[in-house]
Structure formats: C-alpha cells, structure tokens
Fold:
Amino acid sequence: MIQKPLAQIAQMAGGLNDVSKFADVEVKGVSIDTRKIEAGNLFVPFKGARTDGHKFVEDVIRNGGASAALWQKDVPNPPEDLPVIVVEDTTIALQELARSYRNSLDLKVVGITGSNGKTTTKDMTANLLSQKYKVQKTEGNFNNHLGLPLTLLRIQEDTEVAVLEMGMSSKGEIEFLTKLGRPDAVIITNIGESHLLDLGSREAIADAKLEIISGLRENGLIIFHGDEPLLQERLQDYKGNGILKTFGASWENDFYPVDIEPMENGNKFTTNLVSDTFYLPVLGNHNILNALAAMLAAEFLGVPFEKMNDGFASLKLTNMRMELSEGAHGEKIINDAYNASPTSMNAAIDLVANLSGYSRKILVLGDMLELGPLEEEYHYKVGTSLDASKVDYVFTYGKLSEAIARGAKEILGENRVFAFGDKQQLSEELKKYVTDETIVLVKASRGMALEEVVQALQK
Structure:
C-alpha cells in the first residue's frame, strides 16, 4: 500500500496549505471509514448531505490511529495543530493521489467490465496470473469512483500485476476508471440488461462498457464476448492501437470450448487453442466463458496454458457467486444471490435445469433491480421461459418477482409456484419441499438479501 511522508502525500493529492511542520509524518495506507482505520492511515472525510466526515478528523488522528487526514477547503476551521492536508475537494484529491501512486508503480494491469460476471472473471484472472506473478485484485465490489482509487492505493510496491474490476451506473464512469488504472489488457464479459434504468438501452450499455478501451496502453489486448452482436458491431471497424481477441461459445470466436463435461462441482472442458483438458471447479457453462476470457488475459501476460489448471485448482470465488453449500436436510444449495439480471438469471436457471443426479429442483428467485420501464416484462419472461420437465417448484420473493410467478404458473401450473413478500414465510414453506436429493437455486439482485433464505435452509 502507499507509504510515504506527509509532504509527498500533500504534493500528490494537490494540497493547498503549508504542511512543513508535519512533513515527516509517515502515512501508511488510506481509509474513508472511521470504523476501519488502521495505524498510520490517511483518513479521507467526505462532506455529505446527512453527515460530514470532517467532524471525525480530530478524533481519528488523536485517538483512532490515523496519522493524518485530508480536509476540504470549503469546510471551516481545519485543525492547525494536526497533520491535515487542505484540498479543494476530498473526493478529487483521493482520486489524484491514487492516479499519482499508480503511475509511480511498475506493474501490469488487467481491467474488467461487463454487465455480468465481472467479479467471477476477476477472481479467475487473478488466480491464473498468480501462477507467475505477485498479484493483487479489487477487493469485494470496490469498483467505482471511490473503490478503484482505494484499491490502487492498497497495491504493494512489489506487486507485479493488478486485476481491477470496473463498474458503472452511468455514461463516462468507466472512461474515468480506465484512465486511472491504465490497463495493459481489458476484458468485456458481456452486455446484459443491468443499468437499463440509468442508460435506457442495451446499445447505450454497450457504448458505456466499451469506454474501458479509452485507457488501454499502447499494443494492449482487448478481450470481448464475440457472441454479442452489439460488441461485434462496434469493434468491427476498430482502428486503435489495441489487439482484438474474442471468446465465446461459437467456433467463430478466437477462443471457444470444444467439449464440456459436467462434473458434480464444476466442469471439464477442452478448447480450440490447446490440447489440454481443463477442470473449472465452478458450476455453469457461462462460467466457462468467463474462464476463457481470463485465460486469454493470463496468456497475453505470459502465463502458459499448461500452467492454468494449477490456477483453477486453487480458485475461490467471491461470496455468493455460484456458491455451493448443503442445507440442514442434506439438500444442495447454489447461492448466486449477489446480483441478477435477466441474462444471468436465465443462465443460472439453465444450469440447474440441466444438472443430473437430483430428484427435485427448486428455484428461489427474487427481484432483479435497475431494469427500467420494462422491468415487469423482463420478470414475466423469466417465468414463461421455464421448462416444466426440468424444474419442479418455483418460489419468488419481492413485488417485481410476482411477475416471475405469474409467468411460471402458465408453464408449471398453480400448485408448483409460490410467491412471497416475506422471506421468513418463504423459508419455512421451502423447508417442507427439500430432501437430500434436492438442488435449490437462490438468485436475486443484491438488494433483496436472499442469502437470508440460504442461511435459513442451513439451520
């Protein structure tokens, strides 16, 4: 992580005041949360509508372990007896500090964006690259205008590769993040329906995701989902300095799976580029595509395909991404409750529908958020797309998911579909239907907190 004297931190962050009497104070790391401050941290307060972090500055320096803090110029009475750096805007100062620090590091960067699969692909890419390099990756979902700077500032000086997830909610955000990270390779996992509420169309989402190319270093690699027409159309006349590589399910891509063999906890697969058989300990064919993207990035940075099985063997995904566990009655549970869109929900349902070895398959589906004016239609279509011969019961939670239930009843019938507005009631009813030969999929947007249903099944 960043570790420098205060005088240098002030210069990098655009400090406006004289900090000479505190010039040698050592700063080690950065925090924006008073609850998570570690010894030596620089505390960055934000002036918000409800609360102002500046009121905590004196306490975190005197008693909380922070060695210094930023202070926004328009906030009155900065403490002159403490190591405080006055800046025009604390958010911009944090970002500029991260930019300066990143530019001082000699490291390769992989940037990852997409509507679905960003975090899973990030985890896979980092694991594959760790077979050759010292790697750091975005922690959790630290992928926005605050999270990415904090991720950069946590990078150790001897780190050789950083894998950075880049999220967005509106146009221009990824352009800012990619120019901050300056990636050597970028991955666009797919274009889905997430953020339709903000951007209005899949075309606009594709344009926003493609902003990641604007920060690519010269002769860098652009890896994108070649089965997505919106990406193909926009990149077919690409004239930049990057190298284009596609991955996908079809043979028209540069990299595609030739054979897939489902296993109990993952898949074996072969590809068109190498004779090796790979074992991916993650369920779902869509995750094989995420793996292909990660493999292209790792190979570009010098990790041979022959070493990649070692990287997959130690793979641990971020929580609630196709997380397989067991319930109290011996049922198997797939917890994919971190996020959801129609694309990812249909992929997860397809996975469960085609799994063998289970006598009963149950879907627990919650609301998919941020889908815009057609949100009810998207939910209804999830229900009507089900195969009654491959799914036994459907439980839904949330107002929007009532449309899933309505569509599902047309396919499965009234007696196999249950809609709830209360998670506890859902969980109690669900327990009546599970056996040790049952597989349960739990899937929804993060805001629905459906992991509570998983926890209930495990008790």
Remarks:
- The chain has a mean pLDDT of 94.
- Residues 323-457 form a domain with the Protein-Tyrosine Phosphatase; Chain A fold (CATH 3.90.190.20).
